Amino acid sequence: MLARLIPDRHLATYRDVTPALLAADGIRALLLDIDNTLAPYEVAEPDDELRAWFAALAKAGVRVALVSNNHPERVALFNRTLGLPAYPDAHKPLRRTVRRALDELGVPPAEAAFMGDQLFTDVLAGKNLGMRAYTVPPIRDKRDLFTRFKRLLERPFMRAYRRRESKKNKENQA
Predict the structure, then answer these.
(1) pLDDT tops 80 at residue 71
(2) Which member of 9, 12, 18, 64 has the lowest number of beta carbons within 10 Å of its beta carbon?
């Protein structure tokens, strides 16, 4: 169970998730959190850079869906110019909505990844179904007590991720 909280990749930003990286990981579909992964909470719509990133994924044949715990109004506004399959009120890390998104994209979990900024929602949501899980640092983290507590609980799992990656790098150099 605890291993499900360790991401497969931790990247500096969503922009580091390229079609080449996804192809190398055998990924044909990418499920995405919105808030603090793609844009701060207060940014209502994607900017030109984010739209270009989505276009590059589409050109490479990567299927994409937005899976958010936020309310339908927020998700619909953010998705207005993108027109992607979108799933608000997903109740991540529960499996139901994530499975529905994969089914509607027509991609098995082994060929999909979930990307977000939180281990207890986004990483666990993907890992619960056997998907790969990518994390990015939060764009602009909330400073409320609950969020700070969650981030504190995430630290041991991120340390485990860094140890694993360090060990892999040493093995590859040997």
Answers:
(1) yes
(2) 12
Residue-range definition of the domain harbouring residue 47: 2-173
Consecutive H or E run containing 85: none
pLDDT of residue 140: 80
The amino acid occupying position 12 is: A
SS3 19: helix
**Is residue 54 pLDDT above 90, yes or no?**
yes
Q: How many domains does the chain have?
A: 1
Q: What's the CATH code of the domain at 34? A: 3.40.50.1000
Residue (of 103, 102, 57, 66) closest to 84 by Cα position: 66
What six digits make up the tokens of 38?
A: 């793609």
Report the SS3 class of residue 113: strand
Which pLDDT belongs to residue 1? 61
Q: How confident is the model at residue 113 (pLDDT cuts 50, 70, 90)?
A: very high
